Amino acid sequence: MNNICNKIKKKNKPNDIIYTPHQVVDYHLSLLDLNDTYTYLDPSYGDGVYFNKLPHKKEWTEIEKGKDFFEVNKKYTWVIGNPPYSILDNWLKHTLTICENFSYIIGIVNLTPRRMRLIEEAGFHFNIISIVKVPTWFMRSVIIVCNKKKETQQILYKDFGNRCLYCNNPCGGMRGKNIKHCKRKSNAKVCSY
Fold first, then answer.
1. What is the DSSP letter of 128?
2. What SS3 state is found at 107?
């Protein structure tokens, strides 16, 4: 197993585990050109929320399940998911060697000019950058859609509101003594109040 992935697996607080709500995945996938003839890799399987919605020719990796993304050498049409932020540089470098197109959702502060240059220098173009507000996540995120064809670029914004996408209770901003607020963290599997 790769040393980088061993570090993630042995962390006391695995901040690289972010559960993506299915509504966010649906929006993310709606931005992409997907069909049954393409091959897909979900490199950070987690609970399978991306994998389960991809067309048929698909594979996954997940370090917690013993399948190391950094050991993948096969080429895919698309690599799609929510990668671990603590190793994003190495993750991107490997992604750029195994696909024709990729799309990730990452924290907005993680889309740095240096990383954008890395992507462009590998021959990829940013086709879509969508800023996304997910109510239970700490910060805004961006969905980036990159491929080797230069196409019209789009910048989009999607606001999922102030209600938890899992329990539909308010996440903040709404006041009143009888309002139950969800305090779910992005790496939690259940809501808390």
1. E
2. strand
Q: Where are the domains of the chain?
A: 3-159
Q: Using N-to-C axis directions, what is the helix angle for 88-95 and 113-121, rounded to 10°?
A: 20
> CB-based burial of residue 25 (10 Å sphere; 0-12 exposed, 13-18 middle, 19+ buried)?
buried
Pairing of strands 99-107, 76-81: parallel
Q: Cα(40)–Cα(12) distance, rounded to whole angstroms?
A: 31
Q: Looking at the DSSP assignment, which residues form a beta bridge with residue 157? A: 131
Q: Cα 111 from chain centroid? A: 12
pLDDT digits (tens, 9 = 90+) for 6-64: 554 455 445 677 789 999 999 999 999 999 999 999 999 999 999 999 999 999 999 89
CATH architecture of 3-159: 3-Layer(aba) Sandwich (3.40)
CA atoms of 19 and 23, how far apart (whole Å): 12
* Rounded distance between C-alpha atoms, residue 170 and residue 45, angstroms: 28
Question: What element of type H or E holds 77?
Answer: strand 76-81
Q: Which amino acid is at 71?
A: E
